[in-house]
Each structure stands twice: as structure tokens, then as C-alpha cells.
């Protein structure tokens, strides 16, 4: 069989091709297995595989659960054989999605563990969907979590738990996975998750953590009062109705000297903010490298908050997002100052329905370095001259300053250049504008 000539092999392999049109997630397993027999078979089968397989589907493996239990097991075998044969298929994997929705049998558990233990060189992210659990799936999940730590894949730097896995009583093995990966983790996201002591201890061991995203977690106020993450750069908190991590936020500036981005989101301005304005003032005063702040739908963000806290204490900020903060109706420059934020490059006021044209005009005048401005919907059709935005081009609600290379430049070109453009016609002008936008 190994000595069949290429033409004969190709005729045989054609019988293993599924009928067109090929489904998006189609994997011709028999043809794939033939491609891994030896190098000569691979040379014949590879062009046929290339026409069928969307290799991008392997990049984020099992996203939206496109495969059954048997298919997942066969994929694990194919990736293992790929590695043994010195081929590249297992190298495509960058993220593996693991869901309790399809943890129905031990065969799937073994397949998932086998893929992660192959240590694909580009696999850096594990995402767990833990929202739907039963006693049976919880037991299988724990078996999988234990196997993932023996041995550990040191390439894993990003971890995401979405869901509570049936409650804190089932968090022990999740926390153990965090602890096992702690020397290598750079990013952790917890969504709809209840923080308890085992998770807190595991998080505290992640000394190289650069990003912490807490999306509607419960009991976040139990986080360490002095954050033990000296390399943390990004902190995001989307609140629930429970108490927020105020004491942690206060200490972020001093304990996390590399912090560059802070996000606090509420579901509505009618909800009492879980992080208070005093904590934010302490953060802004202490985080000397902070460049990006997002405060979304926070009820106390108004004229007074801007005048007393965000403008005087956030002078180093480059990107500010105040989406849905309906209390904002005006901006005022600090006494004796001509500028709001001297280094500001982008500002989002999307959903700030009390902001008017005069307010925008003051922002543009007081922030000469601003390059990107997102305005609320009610200002979409306002004359840009009324808002002082003659140097900006609009795309929906986003206004981008054109012709900027760092220093303040006027969009109006010198007369001789304008005359040249007119000679080339209107098409030339718009072609240049499109190039600028691109």
C-alpha cells in the first residue's frame, strides 16, 4: 500500500471527500488519517484537505461546540499523530473551549486532556463555560481539571471561567488549576463567578498577572486589600449588586506600579456604584502610569466628579471612555489652566445625552492632542462647525482628526497644494482623504 503511485493514491482519496458544499466545520477524518500515514501519502492528501478544511476552526478549538464525542476523540488522535509525524496541524491551536454542555462522557474528557497535554506551541488560552452543571458533569469536570495539572502546560497564559460551576462548593479544583498555572498566567477573567477563599488564595499566587477581568462576580470585596500583582497592567470590574472591591482599588496605584488601564462598568446609572468616587480619586492619584480609564454608566460621574477628581487627578490620561454617564453636561478647565487633559488622544461620550455642541467645542479647544472623539447619537447630525470640529471627519458617531502626525496640524493645506488638488479634480481629494483614514 505504501508503494502505490501518487495518481492511484489520489483516485482512492477522492472517495474520502465529502460532497459539496462543504459544511463550515467539516473534517474528513478518514482523509485526514490517510494524510498522516507517511510523507508520500501526505503530499497527495494535503491539497485535497486544503480545499475542505477551514484551519481557522482549529485555531479556537471547540468554539460553539461543533463536534460530537466521537469527533472530538478522533481530533485528539489526529493532533497527536500530527505531532509524532513532525507536521504542523497541532500548531494551529491557540485556544481550547471547554464547556460543561458537552462533558457528557469520559471519552470527551480524555480527548480534551490529551489535546492540552500535547502542549501545542501556540496554545496559550483555556476558556471554560461552567454555566450549566449537573452532579454528573461536575464530576467529569473535576476529573478533567485534575488531569490538566499533571503535567502542566507551561504555555497557558490566559484563563477564563464563565459561570459558577454550581456554586463555591465546586470551586476547589478550579482554584487548584489557577494555582498550578500561577507561575505562567498573564491574564485571568472570571465571569458570573462567586469569589471565595480558595479562589482568592489562588489569585494571590499569580505574581506575574498582567490582566484581571472581573465580570459580574459575586463577593469581589473579598479580594486582597493590598493587590499582590506587581506586574498588573489592566484591571476591569463590571459590578453586580454586591459590595465592590473598594479597598483593592485604593491600593492598585501603589501596589501595581505598572497599571495602565482601569475599567469600572455598571449595568445602569440607577444602580448604586459598587466602587465609590473616593476610591477612584485615590487610584488616579497613585497610579502614575495609568493611561486609559473607562467608567461606563456610573451614576456619580457628573460635572462635579469631572471638576474635582477626573480632570485634576487624571492629567496623564490618554484615553477616557465615559459611556452612558448621563450626569455629564459640561466640562470646566482647572483654575489657571488652558487644557483639560494635556495628553488626551481619545474620548468617548457615547450615551451621554446631556452633552451639547458647546460642551464638545470646549473639549476640542481644551484638548488639542485629541485624535478620536465618540459623541452621543443626538449630536450625529449637528453641524461640525458649531461644535468646533472642522478638523475632524465623521464615521457614524466617531469623529477622527485627519492629517495629524502628533503635532497639531490644520486640515486646510497650503494654497498651492489646494490648487494642485483642484486641478486633479474632486476624485483626487477624496482618494487622499480615504488614504488618511486608512
TrEMBL record:
InterPro entries: LRR_dom_sf. GO terms for cellular component: SCF ubiquitin ligase complex. GO terms for biological process: SCF-dependent proteasomal ubiquitin-dependent protein catabolic process. It comes from the Eukaryota. This is F-box domain-containing protein.
Amino acid at each position: 500500500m505504501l508503494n502505490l503511485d501518487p495518481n492511484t493514491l489520489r483516485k482512492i482519496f477522492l472517495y474520502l471527500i465529502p460532497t459539496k458544499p462543504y459544511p463550515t466545520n467539516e473534517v474528513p477524518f478518514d482523509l485526514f488519517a490517510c494524510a498522516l500515514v507517511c510523507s508520500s501519502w501526505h503530499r497527495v492528501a494535503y491539497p485535497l484537505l486544503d480545499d475542505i478544511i477551514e484551519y481557522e476552526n482549529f485555531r479556537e478549538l471547540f468554539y460553539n461546540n461543533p463536534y460530537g464525542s466521537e469527533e472530538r476523540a478522533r481530533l485528539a488522535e489526529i493532533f497527536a499523530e500530527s505531532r509524532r509525524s513532525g507536521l504542523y496541524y497541532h500548531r494551529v491551536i491557540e485556544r481550547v473551549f471547554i464547556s460543561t454542555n458537552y462533558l457528557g462522557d469520559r471519552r470527551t474528557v480524555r480527548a480534551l486532556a490529551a489535546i492540552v497535554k500535547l502542549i501545542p506551541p501556540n496554545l496559550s488560552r483555556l476558556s471554560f463555560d461552567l454555566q450549566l452543571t449537573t452532579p454528573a458533569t461536575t464530576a467529569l469536570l473535576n476529573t478533567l481539571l485534575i488531569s490538566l495539572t499533571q503535567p502542566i502546560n507551561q504555555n497557558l497564559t490566559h484563563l477564563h471561567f464563565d459561570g459558577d460551576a454550581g456554586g463555591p462548593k465546586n470551586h476547589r479544583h478550579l482554584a487548584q488549576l489557577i494555582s498550578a498555572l500561577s507561575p505562567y498566567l498573564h491574564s485571568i477573567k472570571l465571569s458570573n463567578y462567586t469569589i471565595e477563599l480558595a479562589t482568592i488564595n489562588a489569585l494571590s499566587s499569580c505574581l506575574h498577572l498582567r490582566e484581571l477581568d472581573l465580570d459580574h462576580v459575586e463577593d469581589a470585596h473579598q479580594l486582597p486589600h493590598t493587590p499582590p500583582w506587581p506586574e498588573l497592567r489592566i484591571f476591569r470590574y463590571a459590578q453586580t449588586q454586591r459590595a465592590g472591591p473598594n479597598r483593592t482599588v485604593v491600593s492598585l496605584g501603589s501596589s501595581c506600579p505598572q497599571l495602565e488601564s482601569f475599567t469600572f462598568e455598571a449595568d445602569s446609572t440607577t444602580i448604586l456604584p459598587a466602587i465609590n468616587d473616593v476610591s477612584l480619586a485615590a487610584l488616579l492619584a497613585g497610579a502614575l502610569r495609568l493611561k486609559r480609564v473607562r467608567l461606563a454608566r456610573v451614576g456619580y460621574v457628573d460635572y462635579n466628579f469631572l471638576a474635582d477628581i477626573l480632570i485634576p487627578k487624571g492629567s496623564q490620561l490618554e484615553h477616557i471612555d465615559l459611556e452612558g454617564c448621563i450626569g455629564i453636561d459640561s466640562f470646566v478647565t482647572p483654575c489657571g489652566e488652558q487644557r483639560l487633559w494635556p495628553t488626551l488622544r481619545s474620548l468617548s461620550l457615547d450615551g451621554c445625552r446631556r452633552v451639547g455642541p458647546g460642551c464638545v467645542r470646549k473639549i476640542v479647544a481644551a484638548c488639542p492632542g485629541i485624535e478620536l472623539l465618540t459623541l452621543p447619537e443626538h449630536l450625529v447630525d449637528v453641524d461640525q462647525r458649531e461644535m468646533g470640529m472642522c478638523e475632524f471627519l465623521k464615521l457614524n458617531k466617531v469623529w477622527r482628526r485627519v492629517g495629524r502626525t502628533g503635532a497639531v496640524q490644520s486640515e486646510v493645506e497650503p494654497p498651492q497644494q489646494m490648487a494642485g488638488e483642484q486641478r486633479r479634480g474632486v476624485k483626487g481629494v477624496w482618494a487622499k482623504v480615504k488614504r488618511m483614514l486608512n
